[in-house]
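Shipment paperwork, digital attachment
Item: protein structure file
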Amino acid sequence: MAETIRQIPAKYGAPEHVFHPRMGSYGRRLGAALPPLLLVVVAVFVIGYRRPAGPAMGVLLLLALVGLVTAYAYLRPALVVLTAHHVLLSRWVGFRALPRERIAQVVTVRTLLAARPRSGGSRGRPCLWFVTPAGRSALFLDGTVWDARTLDELARASGAQHVNFQRATPAQLTEHWPRLVAWRVRYPRVRYVAASCALIAAVALFAWWAFTRGPA
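Attachment content:
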C-alpha cells in the first residue's frame, strides 16, 4: 500500500511538497469508521456466542472482513505529493497521478454544506477539487479524511488559480462549474442514511438470531 514518499516511482520525479492530514481531522475519520467497526464487533460476538458452522460462518467472516477494510479505508495514512509535473494521491495500490498541466483551477470549500442546509446549522466538511479546463473534477479530496488547513496549503502550493469558498452548497458550486460536484458529494445524507439502515438491519438480524435461538 502506498503510504510513504519512498514508494513514489522515480518516473514522477522528486517530491517538492508533501501533505498529510493533521491530527485534528481524525475526529471525522473515527466517526466515519465507527459504523463498520460496530459491524465487526457484532459479527465477532455472534461467532463467539453462536459458534455457527458452514455458510453462516462464511457470511459472518465476510461481514467482519468488509467492516475491517472499510474502517481501514478511513483510518489508513493518507498522502498527497507535489512533484514538478504531477500531483500524486496515495491509493490502496500505488499512487493516482494527475499531470499538473491538466489543472486549470483549484477549488476549495472550507465548509461544504448539505444540498438543503437547515436554518441555523453550520455542520459541513472541507473539500478540494483540482479542476480541468473543461470544468470537470480531475481529483477530489474529501474532508472526511482531510482538514481545511491542509487543503488550503495544498491548493496554494499547486501554483494553479485558487478559488476559495468559506461556505457553499453544491448548488452554488454548480453555478460556476456545472460538472464539478459528483452525486455522492452532492447528496451525502442519502449515502449515509442508506449505509446506516443497512448496518441497523444487519445488527438487528444478528441480535435476533443470537438471542432467540440460543448458543449452539
